[in-house]
Amino acid sequence: MTVDTRAPVVPASSPATSQAATDTSASNVSVRTRRPLFRKYFAALFAAVLLPLVASGASEAWFSYRDQTVLLDEMLGIEAQSAAGRIQGFLDSIRDQLGWTVQLPWTDVADESHRIDALRLLRQVPAIIDVILVDARGIERLHISRIAPDVTASGIDRSSEPAVQAARASRVWYGPVTLHQGSEPYMQIAAAGTRAAAGVVIAEINLKLIWDVIAAIKIGKTGEAFVVDRSGTLVAHPDMSLVLRGRDDRQAAVLAAMGAAAHAAGEHAAVRTTDAEHRTVLAAMAPITGPDWTVFVAEPISEVLAPVWLALWRTLYLLLAGASLAALLAYFLARRMTGPIRLLEEGAMKIGAGQFEHRINISSGDELQRLADRFNVMAGELAVSQERSERITRLKRFLAPQVAELVERAGQDALLNSLRTDVVVLFCDLRDFTVFASHADPEEVMGLLREYYNALGTIITRYEATLTNMAGDGLMMLLNAPMPMQDAAVVGARMAVEMQRAVQELVRGWQARGYRIGFGIGLAKGVATVGRIGYEGRVDYTAIGSVVNLASRLCAAAGNGQILVDPAAATEIAGAVSVTTLGTHQLKGFADNVVVHSVAWEAPL
Amino acid sequence: MKRRRLVALFAGAAATLAASRSAWPQATGKIYHLGGLTPLSRREKHWVALFDELGRHGFVEGVNLTVSGFDVAADRLEAGAADLVKAGVDAILSGGAGPTQAARLTTVAVPILTVVDDFVAQGFVTSLARPEGNVTGVSILGSQLDSKRQEILVEFVPAARRLAVLADPGSTAEDELQTLARAAQARGIEISVHRAGKREEIGPAIEAARQAEAINVLASQMFNVNHQEILARIAEAKIPTIYQWPEWVGEGALIAYGPSFAAAYRQLAQQVVKVLRGAKPADIPVEQPTKIELAINLKTAASIGFPVPPALLLRADTVIE
């Protein structure tokens, strides 16, 4: 008697993989991010726009400030030159007019033409207050005044006067500034003709008339130009009062100090100094060579720098505008970046929580959209996988795991559809278990059953038998359904042998403990109707037919350690295991006597 | 929200710019008050000139300037000055020694701006450069030019041997008259002095002066006030006459030599501006006219039958034909 102990091949694929997907839903705890991506993106983008902007703005402001101040210094120097030119022009025009009176030579007799010349001079040049004509010897011939009565041929010898001597030597002479009655500034200008015989003209000039010139010089908005002579006396100033107040005026002293500062800086440089109103001013100077005067121009530094400040403010406003724009841009860009990521996160959470129908909707056209599409595909696959795993779990209720996988992989529940087919039905149960169960305590009962089922379970699984029913200690198994099986009867017989061996091992232990429990098996082969029975959510697979009853009866008839087989099965298995005929038996529910066979299992198969 | 903030930022920037531009306070809202202490109407040309000049410096009557006083009777000048002080004027405008003296006796606080012959001699200021008190203004070389006028008059009528001088004792000192006499004598000319200290005396004085071949009307505030009467009487007398103010030539005077009256008051207006802007009269030096004009009326010359010598015409700044 030989029994086949080769175990059927167990399929390698494990259901654990599909199970993992559903487990992730438990781990979808959202971690609070300490440094959100949005903030990082925002900061980076903002800085990327703002930093170059600030750098260029600041450098531009600095360079324009530097260039502007240099330019303004130069401008002020030019203003000083121009002011000096205008005052020089005023004096030159007087000198030129004086020239008319020293063209005709003097004779010893009084002549009217010189007088007419002098009168014309007064008419022509309002600044001249009086004119003295001196002949070639230096004798005064004519003195015409706007205020005093005229004097003709006074005979005063003026030949030793500096005016006459200097004019003879260098054609023109500028006298010192004198203050009439300590107030109004006057100056003498003397001019000699081309010929000594024409004599010399000495004119008294009212310097107040320079006011028209100096007041017309505009230095910016509130800047001013003023003239100081070689002794520091204020000669001309837009505010006439300063000039008229004379030599020892406080403000005039301040102006003189300003002048000295500008003088120290030289002709082509502007200096910062303080004016009479305690304003900081930028001052520049230019000499007036003829009378040895100096023109100073001064402009409040605040006014000088106004355009510079304006430019700086403009840069600042542009920077602020740029910064706002950068912030807006950074905000929108960062949003565009992190928005899809947040959608992905939400999607992952939902899918993780088992909402496999959830789809992440991103159409940014970039990698993020690709990632979202992957997520969506994954969700779909997860849904399929979960459905499958649920189905397998269901199948495993009555199929061996590997068979369940197989059925599932074959795809179809079609295998489980109802049909009439040849099946091998196997029943087994414990002898006298009910008696034992009613006496023993529940733990003992359940512990015994656990051992029993553990022993049987592995064998059933290995032989890929379909476990259709479990009732207490009794089990019903099918072979060749739903999965067709080669030599189902032989496989069933071998399985029965292994079961007997395994359980008898236990029985020995039980009996040693004093439990009178045995184990019998019935096996029959025949045509039965197989298929699913049950209702929604609770479906079993079973077989219906006389062969089932037959197997059940055989099992009931079997004593401890017996494997009873019907003739149909016995015929098939005869070559594989040792079968002995036990003769005909009357079985309950069967009209005819049935020939019962027994499989021997004690001997090695 | 962002955009709104940006708009607010720009608005703020614009406001700051605008504020810095308009930081040139023109209207402080102050109304200035000037009082005229003079017997003359403020419609006189020289006062019109003064207010015109003030207007050019931004002080416009009815806008930021109110004006009171003027037409103050000569005998109640001090009361008039007191009225002005009581009214709280920012400055008293005056002209001539009499009204100025009246103002000065009334207040030492309110600035007095005036056109006077000689500030120092009248004791209105300690020096031209530093007035020290509350009086300043324009000094008009009035009497200083009397001898120059005499010279021009003689040049106009070289043949004249008898010259009359119409003098206001209130304006002309005796030694000045002697100087004039000496200068005339040097040319062999005899001088008769006719004094008129009051309006009523003008007529008789001119009547007496008709004996002479030419008249020199000396500088005087009183003569100025009554110049129309003087011009009328002398026109009637048909005697060559020289006056102080070039403006009178336009009103029929023959010759005048002196600073323009209107110009002097324009010059005064500049000082008024300084006072209104906060300067103290003590710090505003007394100014002198920069231009002395010779004006000749050829029509008047023709009407009295005197040709104008070419040398004089050459010197004339204003010639009325």
Describe the structure.
The complex is a heterodimer of chains A (605) and B (321). Chain A is α+β, with helices and mostly antiparallel strands and 605 residues long. Helices cover 47% and strands 22% of the residues of chain A. Chain A is built from 16 helices and 19 strands. In chain A, the strands form three sheets. In chain A, strands 12, 13, 14, 15, 16, 17, 18 and 19 form an eight-stranded mixed β-sheet that branches. A six-stranded antiparallel β-sheet of chain A has the order 3-2-1-6-5-4, with helices on both faces. In chain A, helix 1 crosses helix 10 and helix 13 packs antiparallel against helix 14 (488-512). The longest helix of chain A has 63 residues, at 37-99. Chain A is rod-shaped, with a radius of gyration of 65 Å. Chain A starts with 15 loop residues before the first helix and ends in a 6-residue tail after the last strand. The model of chain A is unreliable at 1-29 (pLDDT under 50). Chain B has 321 residues and is an alpha/beta fold. Chain B has helices at 2-21, 45-56, 77-86, 97-106, 119-122, 146-156, 174-186, 199-209, 221-225, 227-237, 261-276, 298-303, 310-315, and strands at 32-37, 65-69, 91-95, 112-116, 135-139, 162-167, 190-195, 214-217, 241-243, 255-259, 292-297, 318-320. In chain B, the strands form two sheets. Chain B has a seven-stranded mixed β-sheet with strand order 7-6-8-9-10-11-12, sandwiched between helices. A five-stranded parallel β-sheet of chain B has the order 2-1-3-4-5, with helices on both faces. In chain B, strand 6, helix 7 (174-186) and strand 7 (190-195) form a beta-alpha-beta unit. In chain B, helix 2 (45-56) crosses helix 11 (261-276) and helix 8 (199-209) packs parallel to helix 10. Residues 6-26 of chain B have low confidence and may be disordered. The chains are: A alpha+beta (605), B alpha/beta (321). Chain A binds chain B through residues 115-116, 119-120, 122-123, 126, 145-150, 179, 181-184, 206, 208-209, 240-241, 244-246, 310, 313, 317, 320-321, 324, 327-328, 331, and chain B through 2, 5-6, 9-10, 13, 16-17, 20, 120, 127-130, 141, 144-145, 147-148, 150-151, 183, 270, 274, 279, 283-288, 290-292, 311, 314-315, 317.
